[in-house]
From TrEMBL:
Tagged with keyword tRNA-binding: no
Ranges annotated as spanning the membrane: 55-78, 98-118, 130-150, 162-180, 192-213
Organism: Ectocarpus siliculosus (Brown alga)
Main location, first listed in the record: endoplasmic reticulum
Keyword Magnesium: no
Membership in a protein family: Belongs to the ERD2 family.
Alphabetical keyword list: Endoplasmic reticulum, ER-Golgi transport, Membrane, Protein transport, Receptor, Transmembrane, Transmembrane helix, Transport
GO molecular function: ER retention sequence binding
Record's protein name: PGPS/D6
Length: 226
């Protein structure tokens, strides 16, 4: 654990809590993508499947359970909680996430692990590795539906803007964490897939970061271009 990893985890946690605060305070899901939350839940469930058979630390286990639980709660609130449910606009959240995010990423995960996946015994470790690879490939694209919704609304509420900014900051801090570990941690194992996924995810936030910074600098409401 280093300061950049811890800051990344805290930023990630704060982003989720910020979204819960927005839903609870405004009683509205306007400008929020349910599909992004569903994609993040898929990412967490597949990446953290080792919760059932491997213990690393209490911090590690608590954070994993926290991400799964809070994301599930957000999905429940948007789908079922009244009056929030009535404010969710499906027509604006129209990205076909199962067809154009989950399915292609699953196919890519299978391709990467084809050397061990298509064996007669299909070892358990290969399945776990596939889930991890799939989650790494999928995570960068989980934010796409949310960015599309914000682009359609154009006007971004403060809490929603803070949520997306903190979520982007989490991945940016993780990139710094990887650089730090590679430089200072003896025997650190590089993983090209993780680096590529982290870079792609950060780049997807770049445009949002720019307009977020502009809005804070001038003290006005955040607005995205048409």
């Amino acid at each position: 654990m280093n300061i950049f990893r811890l800051a990344g985890d805290m930023s990630h946690t704060a982003s989720i809590l910020m979204l819960l605060l927005k839903l609870r305070a405004s009683k509205s899901a306007a400008g929020i993508s349910l599909k992004t939350q569903e994609l993040f839940l898929v990412v967490f469930v597949t990446r953290y499947v080792d919760l059932f058979f491997r213990f690393i630390s209490w911090y590690n286990s608590i954070m994993k359970v926290l991400y799964i639980t809070l994301t599930s709660l957000i999905i429940y609130m948007i789908r079922e909680h009244i009056p929030i449910k009535a404010t969710y606009d499906k027509s604006q959240d129209s990205f076909l996430h199962w067809q154009f995010a989950v399915a292609p990423c699953a196919a890519l995960g299978l391709l990467i692990h084809s050397w061990s996946w298509w064996t007669v015994s299909m070892p358990f470790s290969s399945l776990i590795n596939f889930f991890w690879t799939f989650s790494e490939v999928l995570e960068p694209f989980a934010i796409v539906p949310q960015l599309m919704v914000l682009q359609r609304y154009r006007e971004v509420e403060n809490l929603t803007g803070h949520y997306v900014f903190l979520l982007g900051a989490y991945r940016s801090l993780y990139i710094v964490n990887w650089v730090y570990r590679a430089h200072y941690e003896a025997g650190y194992q590089h993983h090209v897939l993780v680096y590529i996924a982290g870079l792609v995810q950060t780049l997807l936030y770049a445009d949002f970061f720019y307009y977020y910074a502009i809005s804070k600098y001038y003290g006005g409401r955040m607005s995205l271009p048409a």
